[in-house]
Every structure is written in structure tokens, then in C-alpha cells.
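Researcher: Good morning. I'm working through a list of sequences from a screen, and I'd like to move beyond sequence-only analysis. For each chain I'm collecting a predicted structure so we can compare shapes side by side. This is the next one on the list. No need for commentary yet; just the structure.
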Amino acid sequence: MSPTLTRRLALLAQPEHHALLGGLRGIERETLRVDDHGHLASTPHPLALGSALTHPQITTDYAETLLEFITPAEADIASTLAKLDGIHRYAYSKLGQELLWSQSMPATLPAEQDIAIAWYGTSNMGMLKHVYRRGLALRYGKAMQCIAGIHYNYSLDEGLWRLLAASEPAARPLTTKAYQSDAYLATIRNFRRYSWLLMYLFGASPALQTGFLRGRPHQLETLSDDTLYLPYATSLRMSDLGYQNDAQSGLSPHENCLDSYVAALTKAVNQPYAPYAALGTKRDGEWIQLSTNVLQIENEYYATIRPKRVIQTGERPIQALCSRGVQYIEVRCMDVDPFEPIGISLTAGRFLDTFLLFCALEHSAAITPEEGLRHTANFARTVKEGRRPGLLLDRGDAEVTLQEWGQQLLAQMAPVAALLDARHGDSVHSAALAEQAAKLADPALTPSAKVLAALREHGNSFAAFGLAQSQRHAEYFRSHAPNADEYAYFDQLATASLDEQAAMEAAPRIAFDDYVAAYRASNLCHSSGECD
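Model: Good morning. C-alpha cells for this chain:
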């Protein structure tokens, strides 16, 4: 354990500081709507769920059938997951015979032209979101817009950063905002060092349906007529088969300071990319992408973790970061757990809280380009071969087995879990840590291994297993219908969201071409791009 971590744990162990270990947790869960045969639904977003454009908790992501459930931010992950469960139960009450797909990798997909891109109505904002997704389809293919994941939004009490700032005088004076941003960037750097561990412990997509690849070259093995896999993979979703392309391959905004991160994204949303320029922004007078730049907007950058700030109306994410600093982080690498009805377990949430607090409190030096390549390689090796016996990862000072390094990290996290348990007066975080230690000792306990074992019970068919799990989860939610208060709450949200969208569409507005031009012009962010 580093001196930095030891010192900070001792400071936070003082009873008067326990309250600072709080913060907020939010979940965004993506899930495809499918029919009762497990095929992608052909229906539009259900009107009974409200407006996908303006509903605060139920929307769509890329494809029209890819639902996204967004919880309010809560002080405890148990409360967050209870809210997520409530959203699922309400959604099922409005879905008829449709199911929510239980996997990260998609169900049986139709031809490319028959996958509908998410639609948000005719307002300028709605059309901007839709055209952005047209651009994604052009750049990545529509099948990629059907991949689902769990996004974990995490913040710590701002008082914790003030306490640390006061106890650790910096070499140069920092404002509270700057210290907090630097601290979250340091958390992200440690996340990059160690996130391979999350892929081993929680990766749950070692197989996929053959049709997903659309004829793309690959090195997967055949499990059955309809299923491809890698025998030791943990998360094919997070491999090079996922949401990546050549344009982003050279884009690596490093997280050594906020200025540098913002500068890299600002450049990417303003720098033309020749293959996209050859396509243009319009075809036959219709918008096909928002720009011909490396990124249409900054959210197109596909990262395992992002620094975030709640944006204001009309504001872009990089503007928010520039003007007000980092407010929370968004973990984006978690697969949907097909054995959990809501896609994530409480134990996983407790471990994530421990892991992220460890990343926040541990010493975090700047990452050199060479180190960045090493972290990327460790992650890539784990998602494709994480359960291979004796798999070696590069720790920098030596190559070590994944199991040995993983157990060392869990030992370093143990006092962090104990600190969280002391605050709550229980042992749930330590228990979550012990459950992960068992997975390191026995790879058969990992979700990816359990998925492959379950596939064998379903004729080695990804489609059959996915459908069976989706039906099992549907039975659970349908047997736990919302109560009257829950119905009233979500019905009100749905009605209000539809009214808000209707008002937006009825209001006077500028031409869409002018709206896009104004939006693109708003991404300028003054940043030195330098880190001290």
C-alpha cells in the first residue's frame, strides 16, 4: 500500500470525516426490445413509455429498439438499484409481449437496412440527435448500435476533495474546482491502470451470434452453427469487435490534466477525416452525419471511462468541463450481467464503489504514452484471454499472472472496503471483495465462464440462451408489477415528457441547417492543452 493511500485512509478513518465517504451513484442500463422469438423488435419506441427525447429516466440510445433506463443519482447503490428495478417493472407493464434482451451483445438482427435508427421527433434538438445516429450508422454500421452495456456514474462528496486539498498542500496553488478536476483525472488514470480487473471479474460476453459480424474478418472460434466465441474471453463487447473504427484508432486523449483531455476532444470534433469528407454531410438533400470530422460530437469518443459534468441547456459536454470542471466520472466498460434481471448485482455495485474509491485515494502518477500502450494492451489481453491459465500481464516492473496481480490489488483494496463498512456499520463491501477473490482463485466462478457453461445447456446457442434468460427476467418483472403510486409516478413522467416534446415541436425555430451550424460553432473551448 502506497504512503499516499495509507495517509488518506488514516485521515478519512477519523469519525468526523466518515460522512465524506458518501457521494452519489447512478446507473444507465441499455437493453434491446425483442419479440417473443428473440428477434429484434420492429416496433417504434412505445408511446406509453413517454418521449425518448425528454423523459428523464426512459429513453433510447442508438437504435430505436435500444432502450436506456437512467436512474436518479442516489447516495447508496442499493437505492440506485431499487430505482432501476422500478423502471424495469414499469417498462414491462407497457411492453405487451415484447421482451428486454438479457445480453450485452445483440439478439438476432435483421438486414442492416431494417434496423431503425432512434427517432426523437421533428424539433431541432430531436433531429440533431437523430442525424448524429445516422452518422454513427454510416461510420460503424447499424449492428454496432444494438450493443448494450451498463454505465456506472460515480461521484464523491465535494467536501472530501476539499479535505484532501487542505491536508496535502500542492506545489502550485489550485482553486477548489481545479483540485477536484485534477483528483478525478487522477482517479481515471488509476482506473486505466487496473480496469482489466473489472473485465475479468464482470465481463459477461465471451460469445456472440454469428450474424452480428456481418461478414467482417475475425479470429473467433465456432461454438455452433449460430454462435462464435473465444474459449478464454471475458468481454468480446469491449474487444476490437466492439464500437471502434480506424478514425478513432489514433485518438487517445490522455488524462494527465483536464486541459489536455479537453484540447484533444476539441481537436477531434473540428478535424476533418478524409473518408468521412468523401461521404459529405448530406445525400440527396438529406443529412447523413453532423460533420465530416473525426468525431461528430465529443460523446462519439468511445472510452472505458469519462470525466463528466451535468450540462446546461444548449451547452456541450466539453464546454461544461471547461467552465465548471469535473463533477463525476462515468464508467462505461461494464457488461450487462445476463444472470441479473436488471443487468447488475448489488455485490458488483459494492465492489465498484470500493474499486473506484481505491482509484481515487491511491497515488496516481501521470501516464506516459508508453505506459498508456501497456495499459491498453493489458485490457485487450484480458477481454480476449482473461481466463487463460497462467495469463501474463505487464505490470511495468515485471510480467505477472493476472491472478497474482489481481489478488495483490484486492489486498490493497481491503482497507478501503473496511473504511466503507465502518461508515455503514456493516461488512457488505468486504464481503463483495471476498466474492471477487474467489473468482480469481477459480475462473469458473466468473460471469464469462458461467455464460459458456449455460450455453452448453442450450445447445451451445447464444440465441437460445439469451432468449431463455430474457423470458426468465420477464417472468420476474411481470410478477412484480408496479403499485398504484409507482404507476402514477411513471405515468406522470411519461405524460409530461410527451407534452414537453410537443411544445418543442410547436415552438418557432430556426432552419435545421442553421441549428447544426450554431451547434458545431459552440464547441470552441479555450484550453492550453498543457499539463504542469
